[in-house]
Design a protein that fits this description.
This protein has six helices and no strands. With 163 residues, the protein is mostly helical. The protein has a domain of 69 residues. The termini are far apart.
Length: 163
């Protein structure tokens, strides 16, 4: 009978130990995920896509921004502003049509340069002498910005090629 009691006590200790270990590991495993809540770190495949919110792209209206810049830089009156807006809308449509054409990039570039020249000519016809001087300075300033950006891009390309 004593052997039976010792065996029974040992059996109870073993079962208790197994239950305690099981409980311990279950709690620690669920601690990573907040035990049924949305806390914790989900490292499963595709988790990043499930939980991230899509970034909203900032709307950019070329016609509006370009018109506002011209009004600000050249001090255009209301009549000039309305005509400039129409000119920019026509330019945007022409460039969009050119970009959708199935032709080589060089031909697209040449056609776009022609559109830029037409745009400049239409704008210059509309401006006063003082505004023409300001327009030339404005074009100079924006072309310098573009050259700086192109230079930075070329430097990055050169660094990438060296690596």
């Amino acid at each position: 009978m004593k052997i039976y009691l010792k065996f029974n006590q040992m059996k109870i200790k073993n079962i208790s130990l197994v239950l305690l270990i099981t409980l311990f590991f279950t709690v620690t495993a669920n601690a990573q995920y907040g035990y049924g809540t949305n806390y914790g770190l989900d490292r499963s495949i595709g988790a990043q896509d499930r939980y991230s919110t899509p970034k909203k792209k900032k709307e950019y209206d070329f016609v509006k921004v370009s018109t506002e810049n011209m009004v600000k830089e050249l001090q255009l009156d209301g009549f000039q502003e309305a005509i400039i807006k129409t000119i920019f809308e026509d330019y945007k449509n022409a460039v969009t049509n050119i970009s959708e054409e199935d032709i080589p990039s060089q031909a697209k570039y040449e056609k776009m340069q022609i559109q830029i020249d037409k745009l400049d000519a239409k704008i210059l016809d509309l401006l006063t002498k003082e505004q023409k001087v300001k327009f030339a300075a404005f074009k100079e300033k924006t072309s310098k910005k573009k050259k700086v950006k192109k230079g930075e891009a070329e430097e990055k390309e050169n660094e990438a090629e060296e690596k």
